[in-house]
Design goal:
The structure holds two protein chains of two kinds.
Chain A lengths: L17 E3 L2 E3 L2 H12 L4 H5 L20 H7 L2 E2 L3 E7 L6 H8 L8 E7 L4 E7 L5 H10 L8 H5 L8 H25 L11 H25 L1 H12 L6 H20 L7 H18 L19 E5 L5 E5 L8 E4 L9 E5 L2 E4 L10 E3 L4 E2 L4 E2 L4 E5 L21 H4 L3 H27 L4 H11 L3 H20 L2 E3 L2 H9 L2 E4 L12 E6 L4 H12 L4 H9 L10 E5 L3 E6 L2 E6 L1 H4 L10 E7 L2 E9 L6 H9 L3 E5 L7 H7 L6 E2 L4 H13 L4 E5 L5 H6 L2 E6 L11 E4 L6 H34 L5 H29 L2
Parallel strand pairs in A: 17-24, 17-26, 24-25, 26-27, 27-28
Antiparallel strand pairs in A: 1-2, 3-4, 4-6, 5-6, 7-8, 7-9, 9-15, 10-13, 10-15, 11-12, 11-14, 16-28, 18-23, 19-20, 20-21, 21-22, 22-23
Helix pairs in contact in A: 7-8, 7-11, 8-10, 8-11, 9-10, 10-11, 10-14, 11-15, 11-25, 13-14, 14-24, 15-16, 15-24, 15-25, 16-24, 24-25
Chain B lengths: L2 H25 L8 H5 L2 H11 L15
Classes of the chains: A alpha+beta, B mainly alpha.
Chain lengths: 798, 68
């Protein structure tokens, strides 16, 4: 029966099996969703994709804040009191069933008039009649069918940014002009010697002006709209005394345009409008290709996307009310329910706290707090409800203060000089000196041709192919990495990754997994009856440690216990046939062992005699020691953990010798540590996972976040690596280095084309048709070369 | 021979019409999500089939909880 999977969510339903309608379900939640779907003619959901659902988890009162009209106003895109439109982010969207059921929401609720899913972004845009159906009801309905939206403080603070489509418009304009100019150039291509004096085709001669001036008109928007960014970039570069790659490009565009205009004004020739429009079109295509975005990921998140919008405040009349997080003041009393995040620092007044800080501080174990203790913002309460008194407002709390550090304001990309820019400098100098040398030669030899040669050199040397090499290589690498579940923010990150010489890792959640699945037993051996009783008792408990232990123990027959009792925060007790077993904390089972704060243990006693304990270990990701070993050959490594030293011994065994290990590091200390490494000239990669690493991730040259589920929150970073691919991390770094080599090779290739073109230019024989052939040819061969090479590289990656 | 002017005018007007169509389609957000429509277009037909098969069944509408 262990092999039965839930019809709705596909999970193994080994613990409690519910049969309904000849189908099995793992829990009542899944069964309810199935009932809702089948009752409303939506069972097609299961035909599209089997077991596509998620188990609905609805915490009572979690969405009470959606009753506040001020909050609703902020969240909705449109709201006129009757009709509301909202765009909700639903992490669970993953298959065609999801699209289908969400777009058929009005079958469940007629007030929903329209719902449209954006699959890549994992959002659904819902229009509904708010006079009968409130936002809160909508969210609850979604949660009820397993599509709980993720609403955080971030949604509240920024209104939707308008989508920037200017690059597409620019490509559209350039492509449109390029195509038309090519057509209009045809008469000239067919009869190169067309010229009244040399006696060319009469028909062409008669109409050449109209063709040429039309080309001129088409080139105007290309130069002054599509290509305008290159002038701005070149100007900015020159002003900060940098010769970036945009300088020769801008120079090429200007010279092409002026020379061509003069050509047609004085009827010297047809001009180079075809090359000009083609050049801008290809350059913009390169830019477009480089811009691979993962719309379902965000690399810019801060604590706001982790924090709730509102919490429950207990006002002076002892009544509960909803308060926006920003409105919370010192002295307020807050009610924190089970599974809620504590938004501010405060004192615990009431209730027993078991707070999970793993995401905030890196401590792997939930922390117990008694009333009177201080609790910090960012922790997640794991059992029961709490009452806290606020000590500091949100922005001044211990964790959120980290974001006031200047490192979050500086833009990393502006300080990094890309490979293309660094070659741009040498290239510009070389081209200008060739142009002047050739011109001075012709001035001496045949002055009438000097200007012609000067402009021809600048035209033909325009580094179109060079500036395409990096975008296409890196853009393609970005896609290959993306397919391997290594998502990078931009192409520049690959260049940075290729340069790193130091790699610093966080411990909890980064090199360890979040699941506890390794435990060792210490103590007296258990008899087979005791083992059976143990497993049957744990079966009934939902505590995470019970569940972890349950899956570790060997299979036993399922027996119904005579008695079972769960003591919250202490342990569980079960009895069968006069046998009694207690499982839980040391005091609970009556063990006289010293409490060991550094490890997590589950103690067991049988008939009130202490038997032994299961010690849980942090489980390291598979291949940690392999990855570290191979990386240590070329990189300096280190561990920077917010956790205590409990795991030091095991880590030392696991990692290469002399890997520096630092424990009990606060978020600011991590940031400072990275900064001090950088001040020694190191290029540092930081690999982390939680909010406590956010500062270090922002400070490092490359900040990589490890994520077990890329849909859930991850702090701002340059790249997100799926945890299952952790073993491949070093390979990815090596691949980045190879990508840089490919770019260098394509530089050489395009320089060869430039040499051929320069030959024609210097001898004064550059006719438009040669430029029109050479420019696209070099660009296309560079693009083909880089695409083939990167795909070859990608095939070797796992 | 001046028919060339008419031909040129026609060709450019046609090109401009397509160009405007492209700009408008980008502006309306058609290219923002290039994936979902490809999945969506496969739904409709099968849904009708599903419905006719189940028409005999009487069903009660799902009522969202009346909590406030």
């Amino acid at each position: 029966m262990d092999s039965k999977n839930c019809f709705h969510c596909g999970d193994d339903c080994y613990r409690n099996l519910i049969k309904f309608d000849e189908k099995v379900f793992c829990c009542n939640g899944c069964k309810t969703v199935y009932e809702i779907f089948s009752r409303n003619d939506l069972s097609y959901y299961y035909d599209l994709q089997s077991a596509a659902g998620a188990t609905p988890k609805i915490a009572e009162g979690k969405y009470d804040f959606l009753k506040e009209s001020a909050i609703v106003d902020k969240l909705t895109e449109f709201n006129d009191g009757k009709l509301q439109i909202i765009n909700l982010y639903i992490p669970h969207i993953h298959c065609s069933s999801c699209i289908w059921v969400l777009e058929n929401l009005n079958k469940l609720q007629p007030s929903v008039t329209n719902s449209q899913v954006d699959f890549p972004k994992k959002t659904v845009r819902i229009t509904y009649n708010s006079s009968v159906f409130s936002l809160k009801k909508l969210v609850l309905l979604l949660a009820k069918i397993g599509y709980e939206p993720y609403i955080s403080l971030d949604d509240y603070d920024n209104k939707k940014k308008p989508i920037d489509r200017s690059l597409i418009y620019k490509i559209g304009v350039a492509g449109f002009a390029f195509g038309n100019v090519m057509f209009l150039s045809f008469p000239d291509y067919f009869d190169i010697t067309t010229n009244q004096i040399s006696g060319g085709e009469f028909w062409l001669n008669q109409y050449q002006h109209i063709f040429r001036w039309l080309m001129f008109v088409f080139s105007l928007p290309v130069v002054f709209y599509s290509g305008w960014d290159y002038f701005i970039a070149a100007y900015k570069g020159l002003r900060s005394k940098l010769l970036n790659i945009d300088v020769p490009i801008a120079l090429g565009i200007i010279v092409l345009f002026l020379r061509s205009t003069l050509d047609i004004i004085f009827a010297w020739g047809p001009g180079f409008f075809d090359s000009l429009t083609g050049l801008v079109f290809f350059l913009l295509l390169g830019k477009f290709f480089q811009k691979k975005t993962y719309s379902f990921l965000s690399f810019e998140r801060d604590y706001k996307s982790y924090f709730p919008i509102a919490v429950t405040r207990i006002n002076s009349n002892k009544k509960e009310e909803t308060a926006q997080v920003h409105e919370i003041k010192k002295g307020d009393r807050l009610l924190i329910r089970n599974e809620e995040i504590i938004p501010v620092d405060g004192f615990l007044i009431n209730g027993k706290a078991r707070i999970d800080y793993s995401f905030v501080t890196g401590e792997s174990e939930p922390v117990k707090k008694e009333s009177g203790d201080k609790v910090f913002a960012g922790g997640k309460q794991l059992q029961g409800a709490l009452e806290i008194e606020v000590l500091k407002s949100v922005s001044q709390s211990y964790l959120t203060q980290l974001w006031s550090n200047s490192v979050f304001q500086t833009n990393k990309s502006s300080t990094f000089q890309t490979l293309t820019d660094s070659i741009g400098k040498r290239f510009t100098i070389a081209v200008l000196s060739i142009a002047f040398l050739a011109t001075s030669f012709w001035l001496f030899y045949d002055a009438s041709k000097a200007m012609n040669v000067f402009t021809a050199v600048l035209i033909i040397a325009c580094p179109c192919a060079i500036s395409l090499a990096a975008p296409f290589t890196l853009g393609n690498m970005l896609r290959i990495f993306g397919n391997k579940k290594f998502y990078l923010k931009d192409t520049q990150t690959i260049e940075q990754l290729a340069q790193i010489d130091t790699a610093i890792f966080d411990k909890t959640g980064t090199i360890t997994t979040n699941h506890k699945s390794v435990a060792t037993y210490e103590g007296m051996p258990l008899s087979s009856e005791e083992e059976s009783l143990l497993k049957n008792t744990i079966r009934s408990s939902n505590h995470p440690l019970s569940r972890a232990l349950y899956s570790l123990l060997s299979d036993q027959n399922i027996e119904t216990l005579d008695d079972y009792e769960e003591y919250l925060g202490k342990g569980i007790e079960g009895s069968l046939n006069d046998e009694n077993i207690k499982i839980g904390s040391a005091d609970f089972v009556g063990s006289d062992l010293q409490f060991d704060a550094l490890t997590t243990s589950v103690y067991i006693s049988s008939n009130d005699n202490y038997k032994g304990r299961y010690v849980f270990h942090n489980q390291y990701r598979t291949g940690v020691s392999k990855v570290f070993k191979s990386m240590s050959e070329t990189l300096k490594l280190g561990i920077l953990s917010g956790d205590n030293e409990g795991e030091k011994g095991r880590l030392e065994k696991l990692l290469p010798k002399l890997t520096p290990l630092y424990f009990n590091q606060k978020p600011e200390q991590k940031l400072e540590f990275i900064r001090s490494l950088q001040s020694q000239g190191k290029k540092v990669m930081m690999v982390g996972d939680g909010l406590n690493d956010a500062g270090a991730l922002a400070q490092s040259n490359v900040g990589i976040t490890i994520s077990e589920n890329i849909n859930v929150f991850s702090p701002a970073c340059d790249g997100i690596l799926d945890a299952s691919k952790f073993e491949q991390l070093h390979q990815y770094i090596l691949a980045s280095k190879k990508a840089i080599k490919i770019i260098k090779l394509s530089f050489i290739l395009s320089l060869l084309y430039n040499a051929v073109g320069l030959y024609f230019a210097i001898i004064g024989q550059l006719v438009p048709v040669i430029a029109a052939i050479l420019m696209p040819l070099s660009s296309i061969s560079v693009v083909a070369f880089t695409t083939v090479m990167t795909n070859f590289l990608g095939r070797k990656l796992e | 021979m001046s028919v060339i002017y008419i031909l040129l005018a026609i060709s450019i007007i046609v090109a401009i019409v397509f160009f405007i169509a492209f700009i408008l389609s980008v502006k309306s957000g058609q290219y923002d999500d290039a994936f979902t429509p490809s999945v969506r277009m496969l739904f409709e037909d099968e849904l009708v089939k599903e419905k006719t098969g189940k028409l005999s069944k009487t069903h009660t509408k799902f009522q969202p909880n009346k909590e406030e």
